Amino acid sequence: MDCCSGYCWFFPTPDITSKTITGILEARLIDQVGVPRVFTVDNARYFTGVYFRAWVASIGATLRCIPVASPHRNALLERQHSGLKKSLKALCAEHPESWPAYVTKAQRRINTRSTYGYSPQELFYGFDALTPFSRRFEDVSNTIDEDSARFEARRRDRERQRMVNSTLNVMEKMRADALSRINPSTYTRQVARRRLFKVGDSVMKWVRNVDPLTPSWRGPLLVQQVLGDSTYKLSDGTVQDSRNMRKYFGKAQNMNPITIAYIQ
């Protein structure tokens, strides 16, 4: 998914190995659309393995992993899975085994649904998806003269620029609308509670406990890199959200991993 416009690509795969995924991405995304600046992925083994990381580096992109135990960081994409399943169910209900043939149809439906009056297709490409019934000026006969072609080219250029400007305006409108929905007092409290760390800080990270007697916090660990807003890479190689981190106030020289358990 393109993070700005919400435009999605769906690719059926015979398996979920890193080699298969990178091959499909290179042939059907990189070669046709271009190289993205950043790949943001979850912590699945086929995304975090050496093969996938090396491939991302080879095409000149940056790989970022979503912090563990932070489903809200990938909520926009996860919601599209529900729409994909509903579309496929409606298209191939009688023959569910043929679902790969209908993935592109479902993708088109998702990308042409309007948000704020504009679809992801229009926000990504700058124009809405055309159908055989909506094409204009398709006269390609030999009788068309050079002046007419020049006039039509200029008209299309103006129309293209108008649509680009309209797309930029709607994106600003969406941003302003999102900000207007935020309660100032609530946002202020959220910012005040936000935990900030810097490179070299000793921290504990939260881990999911199976039962009340298992550890809830693990560490101490060092902050190795600040990846973005509330996102940190720790010395154990994991990427964590600041909500799942606490500062460790023990002695700096005592960095042997320990665990802390809260008994409820």
TrEMBL record:
<dbReference type="GO" id="GO:0015074">
    <property type="term" value="P:DNA integration"/>
</dbReference>
<protein>
    <submittedName>
        <fullName>Gag/pol/env polyprotein, putative</fullName>
    </submittedName>
</protein>
<dbReference type="InterPro" id="IPR036397">
    <property type="entry name" value="RNaseH_sf"/>
</dbReference>
<dbReference type="InterPro" id="IPR001584">
    <property type="entry name" value="Integrase_cat-core"/>
</dbReference>
<dbReference type="InterPro" id="IPR050951">
    <property type="entry name" value="Retrovirus_Pol_polyprotein"/>
</dbReference>
<dbReference type="InterPro" id="IPR012337">
    <property type="entry name" value="RNaseH-like_sf"/>
</dbReference>
<feature type="domain" description="Integrase catalytic">
    <location>
        <begin position="1"/>
        <end position="128"/>
    </location>
</feature>
<dbReference type="GO" id="GO:0003676">
    <property type="term" value="F:nucleic acid binding"/>
</dbReference>
